[in-house]
Amino acid sequence: DSSEVKEEVLRKDDRFLTLLKDVYVESRDPPVQVKGGGGEHLPSKQEEKRLTKLGHLEALDVKKVSKGKISLVEALTLLNNHKLQPQIWTAEKIAAEYSLELKEVNSLLEFFIPFTVHEFPKQTKKAITSHKPKQLT
């Protein structure tokens, strides 16, 4: 019966209350261990930064990046430069120019290719727009 259960739940048991009063919980954090002896907290490695090479696209991207990394606009710029002038913008020149490792530049040039945009001549656009669609019956 639900009434018996309700009474059992709401009834206080003095024996359990006295046992609960005897319980004492103490919590402590483990002691912090310092590695390396020094008491100061200093960053273990300071990243070396370089200014980005964006030219007229400077407002579109970050101003500084870590050495060994490039920004998104720089990546698109160097990929486009390599696509347009592969003899001038070789992997070695890109690695030196952007402070990157040669194997990473080779992977970048191998696996990432910028899209090519093709514009149709105006005559073709006109011919396409003037074509009347067939009516279905």
UniProtKB/TrEMBL annotation:
According to its UniProt entry, one GO biological process term is: mitochondrial respiratory chain complex I assembly
Q: Which Pfam families match?
A: UPF0240
Question: What domain of life does the UniProt record list for this protein's source?
Answer: Eukaryota
GO CC annotation terms, alphabetical: mitochondrion
Read off the PANTHER family from this record. NADH DEHYDROGENASE [UBIQUINONE] 1 ALPHA SUBCOMPLEX ASSEMBLY FACTOR 4 (PTHR13338:SF4), UPF0240 PROTEIN (PTHR13338)
Relate the assembly described in the record. Binds calmodulin. Interacts with NDUFAF3.
What's the family? Belongs to the NDUFAF4 family.
Name of the protein in question: NADH dehydrogenase [ubiquinone] 1 alpha subcomplex assembly factor 4
**Native source species:** Phainopepla nitens (Phainopepla)
